[in-house]
Amino acid sequence: MSSHGKPKNQQTAQDADSRAVTEAALFEAFGGVRGMVETTVPGLVFVAIYTVKRDIHIAAIAAVGLSLALGIARLVRKDTLKHAFSGVFGVAFGAVFAMMSGDAKNFYLPGMLYTLGLAVAYIVSSLAGFPLMGLILGPVFKENLSWRTRNPGRKVAYTKASWAWGLILLAKSAILFPLFWWGDATQLGWVKVALGIPPMLLSVYLTWIFLSKAPPPIDVFAEMEAAEAAEREAKAAAR
Predict the structure, then answer these.
(1) Would the pLDDT of 17 be above 60?
(2) Can you spell out the DSSP letters for 2-28?
(3) CA atoms within 13 A on the CB side of 82
(4) Which CA distances in Å does 193 have to 6, 64, 124, 126, 186?
(5) Which of 34, 94, 142, 234 could form a disulfide with 107 if both were Cys (CB 3.0 to 4.6 A apart)?
(6) Which InterPro entries match (predicted)?
């Protein structure tokens, strides 16, 4: 028997199910490996072309074109478009900023500012008792904000995950901004590409670890449906 009074094999099966559900939710929320690639490859194309051609316009147009192609591919496959749209918007904004300023480093500035702002948001929200990771994943797990008042173990896990994301993104910003100020465009571009996927994978992995060890989410949607069904049955019995 386990420490919770359940057979060991039953407890193991429940833990495996919990880990699987958590993994699926994280992939849905953050786009999985494909989403990470889609946000990294346009920047790789930009810095590669700029390194060879030294032409901001050609590099920017190629990056935007690739980002649009990736978005269209998702549309054709009827996949979720939220990650594709965010990628297209971010790449297009950076491309316009770089072409208007004439400085290739500015292609990366919007994304860097977004990363820094997100890091601050994760940390501040954790300090305020509303960890951002809980606000992001609560609807995915169908628990909404029940983790704040009814499931303290989930709140602790979301707080730890938000701190992990915040500190990792702050570390990433601490590397990139000095390069933006004192390095050249190619140095900044290649380092930014190298720091695209690994920090996110680490953040997602730590989030998975924290949540897989937390209590299961409370399905508030199922509760509401059950309450509505009970109310209908009560009304039918009263007739």
Answers:
(1) no
(2) -TTSS-HHHHHHHHHHHHHHHHHHHHH
(3) 6
(4) 48, 16, 27, 28, 11
(5) 94
(6) UCP010219 (IPR016566)
Residue 141 to residue 21: CA distance in whole angstroms: 8
Are 211 and 161 in contact by the 8 Å Cβ rule? The answer is yes
Can you spell out the DSSP letters for 164-194? HHHHHHHHHHHHHHHHHHHS-HHHHHHHHHH
- C-alpha 1: how far from its chain's center? 38
What is the C-alpha to C-alpha distance for residues 189 and 169, in angstroms, rounded to an integer? 17
Integer Cα distance of 144 and 155 in angstroms: 12
Q: Secondary structure of the chain: what % helix, strand, coil (to 5)? A: 80, 0, 20
Of 197, 190, 49, 198, which Cα lies nearest the Cα of 108? 190
pTM equals 0.83
Question: Are residues 57 and 50 in contact, defined by beta-carbon separation less than 8 angstroms?
Answer: no
pLDDT digits (tens, 9 = 90+) for 72-83: 877 777 766 666
Neighbours of 76 (CB within 10 A): 8
Length of the chain in terms of residues written: 239
The residue assigned the tokens 């890091």 is 119
pLDDT of residue 20: 65
- Which tokens hold the place of 40? 């990294």
How many CB atoms lie under 10 A from the CB of residue 73?
Answer: 12
| pLDDT at position 1 over 50 | no
